[in-house]
Amino acid sequence: MKFSYQWHRYLGWVLAPLLSVSALTGVTLLWLQPLPSPQASPPTVQEWGKALDRGMVELASRYQTAKADLVDLPRGPDAPIRVHLRMAQPSESGWAEIDATRGTAGELQPDSRDLKTQLFELHEHLMLGEVGPWVLRASALLALISVTMGLRVWWRVRRLPVRSFWQQWHRWIGPFAILPLAMMLTTGFVLRSPELANSALSAIAGGGSVVPPPAGQAASAGQRSTLGQALVAASVALPQARPIRIYAARGGVLRVRLRVDEWNPFGFHSVYLREADASVLRIVRATEQPLTMRYLNVVYPLHTGWLPGNQGIVAALVARGLWTLFALSLAALSLSGVVQRFRKKSKR
């Protein structure tokens, strides 16, 4: 047990700040996500399309060198359309909102000043650029090892008297939080390791891979369809689905992502359209996606506390409350372990 105790203590000492940052930024991002819409009726996509086109014309006249690479469609009754504009200088890129009814566009909010973008960068990269995900992957694996060792130590000392409030707090939280924490750490590692996950699932599925998008034809400025036209065409192709996001054209092909009732909040239905005239090239439904994509339908919702199907507001609040409790438990375990370590050093 001495080996497990020592390494649990050492790993906890190193990982405490990283795990606390991941837990607190993650739970903040969770509450920044919009709640499910209480309206059961489908959105008026034609109105969205007209508003999007009016807003894009206004943004194009205001930011002439900008290119729209993502369009997030409203996920609530009063939510705006959000457009990510990529500028010549990456530091100037950011999000602009378009009123989904009137089509008026707001000012560009640079990524450097957008709270959600900064929190996401801290959660996913620790502000370390490309090195950040590798640090987080290693942290997740080491944290799983530390959790296993901590459980073994707890089993041996669970009946011994505690010496301080912090020790009692640490010993009480650990056993109850171990399973959800292990789930969060495992799903976090998988989400930050898409290459490893795809390789493993490709081997399991017999070499299945993501189907490449259909070939398109580069559109000239005079014959390019609008994003609003592409949105309406995709919704007509899949009338039972709710459009979630529009991706910028690649190789003359636009992609609209839609959701029916799959678990992942971003949906797994895709409609590919020709950029020149918004004609439908191919429809890829959620069940037709390869295993290397379908695993995200489970892993991502488990990590973010999203319930399957068309959840209501009450169910979403309960799920977020539980995931918040799990995240705070991780931060509390890290904090109480660090405090115990400081107290022991101060007494020497």
From TrEMBL:
Pfam families: PepSY_TM
Membrane-spanning segments: 12-32, 134-151, 172-191, 313-339
Keyword set, alphabetical order: Membrane, Transmembrane, Transmembrane helix
The UniProt record lists the keyword Nucleus: no
InterPro entries in alphabetical order: PepSY-ass_TM (IPR005625)
Protein name, UniProt field: PepSY domain-containing protein
Organism: Ralstonia mojiangensis
